[in-house]
Design a protein that fits this description.
The complex is a heterodimer of chains A (282) and B (266). Chain A has one domain: MetI-like (MetI-like fold), CATH 1.10.3720.10. Chain A is mainly α and 282 residues long. Chain A is 72% helix and 1% strand. In chain A, strand 1 and strand 2 form a beta hairpin. In chain A, helix 3 crosses helix 9. Chain A has twelve helices and two strands; from the N terminus they run αββααααααααααα. By secondary structure, chain B is mainly alpha-helical. Helix content of chain B is 74%, strand content 0%. Chain B contains eleven helices and no strands. In chain B, helix 8 runs antiparallel to helix 10. Chain B is globular and about 70 Å long. The mean pLDDT of chain B is 90. The chains are: A mainly alpha (282), B mainly alpha (266). Chains A and B meet through helix 1, helix 3, helix 4, helix 5 and helix 7 of A and helix 1, helix 3, helix 4, helix 5 and helix 6 of B.
Chain lengths: 282, 266
């Protein structure tokens, strides 16, 4: 039986069940993160912004930041262009196509990123399937290598993150009553007007969360650029990894790690704020 | 239908078809290469062969890393199942403020860059005096698996009617028996699917594991990336095919337990 009035946290013993998990996460995850954050602002003589000033004084590092944001924007755009109509198709498809799509979307999610990146190394080769296909349909005159190019990286990353764009949009599209559009048509709205005024606002919360997922994952991806583009092209994430694992430059690594963390938290907080606003206005 | 409607329907079906082909391409290519005779990944393969699978037995470092990954995934999933379920019960049954925030906090490791979480934990563990790779891996992977458990079990629990437990007790069950015979079976599918996907997430993790490996302790993805960088040959595709098979198995079990559409809930 449910208690009629709320008990104080200390009188409600069920609260105690949350303690082990919370203690674990606070001690082994939250505290280390806060410590990393705090340490990056402490120099030999007190509080300092020195590492950040130094970091942004170097034009190479600006390049790294633009690389990171640019690739993430391209990947997000490609995922959105494919994922938006695909989410509608998934919601409206007949049983057979829907099952095929669900399998194609869910199965790769349980396959590791190393496996998929390695597969893309093969796909993007000069004699790989994409090159063969484009030559076959006459778009390319001769086979070209896409591996170790920005285009190849965007293609591979978009492939790996596409499910995270389709699923959130699908989750709002499947709730939309198709009769809404018919009602709009009955009332004399033109198709384009119906889409912009009815469909787009209703699907926007799904788009926001899909874009947030794909963008933040593209900003922080590490294995994919390591395998598909290599050292020539540095992002914040690969620079962070390299400065810890190979260069043993913990100072630089901590600075870039905190910038990455700020970007990721910014995307999460910003998108949930936007989703709440959209939710309250519709 | 107007031409515009025709066009938008066409775009939808093209996107659907493209999505299926695009998403399946890396998996199909991996499997095809692993059964091909070509050592330079020629597609379509000139001839079929099981040579790369025969080589697996003698691939140095593969089996120890697989064993490490299986142990770490099993341990961390088991711990996360216990911690996560207890916490989910508290969040659903407790009446205290900030439950939403706590749920977000528990799921947050999924949303933050793995590399940053790994670095933070590495420095934190070092400061606490823990330098041993294997124990660090076990501890770190609980943080990787916990969000998967909490997310799914929380959703399942909020649909569970707790008055069923009271009913069982009225009918003469003791409290532990009521939990064991009513709550646990009702949550069974949630335990299995979330446990399965948490297990796979742990098996696949690279960006956190990389900070807790040494010459003797490597997880499978770390070892595989090393193979890719040192000597890329279709043996790696053969290992990958094994992992794809594991994913297919998980998908079939998940479909049987909760259905494909439910797995796609986001």
């Amino acid at each position: 039986m449910k208690p009629a009035t709320a008990l104080s946290p200390w009188r409600d013993p069920v609260v105690l069940l949350a303690v082990p998990a919370l203690l674990y996460l606070v001690l082994l995850y939250a505290l280390p993160l806060l410590w990393l954050l705090a340490k990056s602002f402490v120099g030999p003589d007190g509080l300092t912004l020195r590492p950040y000033v130094d970091f942004f004084a170097d034009p190479f590092n600006w390049r790294v930041v633009w690389n990171t944001l640019g690739i993430a924007l391209w990947v997000t755009l490609v995922c959105l262009v494919i994922g938006y109509p695909a989410a509608f198709a998934l919601a409206r498809a007949g049983a057979a196509l829907q099952i095929a799509m669900l399998v194609a979307i869910i199965l790769p999610l349980s396959v590791g990123v190393v496996v998929k990146s390695f597969a893309w190394q093969i796909v993007l080769r000069r004699d790989g399937v994409i090159s063969q296909f484009l030559v076959g349909i006459g778009l390319w005159d001769e086979p070209q290598r896409l591996l170790f190019t920005e285009t190849g990286l965007v293609l591979g990353a978009a492939n790996i993150f596409l499910p995270f764009m389709i699923l959130p949009i699908y989750s709002v599209v499947k709730l939309i009553d198709p009769r809404l559009l018919e009602a709009g048509a009955t009332l004399g709205a033109a198709p384009l007007y119906r889409f912009v005024k009815i469909m787009l606002p209703l699907t926007l919360p799904g788009v926001v969360s899909g874009v947030a997922f794909v963008f933040s994952m593209s900003v922080s991806m590490y294995v994919i650029p390591s395998l598909l583009i290599g050292d020539r092209f540095q992002t914040l994430s690969t620079l962070t990894g390299r400065s810890f694992l190979f260069m043993r430059n913990e100072q630089l690594g901590s600075t870039t790690a905190v910038i990455l963390l700020a970007l990721a938290v910014g995307v999460v907080v910003g998108s949930s704020w936007l989703a709440r606003r959209l939710g309250s206005s519709t | 239908m107007t031409p515009l409607e025709h066009a938008s329907r066409a775009i939808m079906w093209i996107a659907a078809l493209f999505t299926v082909v695009f998403l399946m391409t890396p998996l199909v290519v991996t499997v095809a290469v692993s059964f091909g005779s070509s050592s330079i990944f020629t597609l379509p393969p000139p001839d079929w062969s099981t040579l790369w699978y025969e080589r697996l037995a003698n691939t140095r470092g593969l089996w120890p890393s697989l064993l490490t990954s299986l142990q770490v995934a099993a341990f961390s999933t088991a711990v996360a199942l216990v911690l996560g379920t207890l916490c989910a019960i508290a969040l659903v049954r407790g009446r205290f403020s900030g439950r939403e925030a706590i749920a977000t906090f528990l799921i947050s490791p999924l949303m933050l860059p793995g590399l940053v979480v790994g670095i933070a934990m590495l420095q934190g563990f070092k400061a606490a005096g823990l330098r041993e790779a294997y124990s660090s891996l076990l501890i770190a992977h609980v943080i990787i698996t916990l969000p998967y458990i909490v997310r799914t079990v929380l959703a399942a629990l909020s649909l569970f009617d707790f008055s069923l437990i009271d009913a069982a007790r009225t009918l003469g069950c003791s409290y532990p028996t009521a939990i064991l015979r009513v709550l646990v079976p009702a949550l069974g599918p949630a335990f299995l699917t979330s446990g399965m996907f948490a297990f796979l997430a742990s098996m696949d993790n690279y960006p956190i594991s990389i900070f807790f490996t040494d010459a003797w302790t490597k997880t499978l993805p770390i070892q595989m990336l090393q193979f890719v960088e040192e000597n890329p040959d279709p043996t790696i595709a053969a290992i990958s095919t094994g992992l794809v098979l594991l994913a297919i198995l998980a998908l079939i079990v998940g479909d049987r337990l909760v259905g494909l559409r439910k797995l796609a809930d986001f």
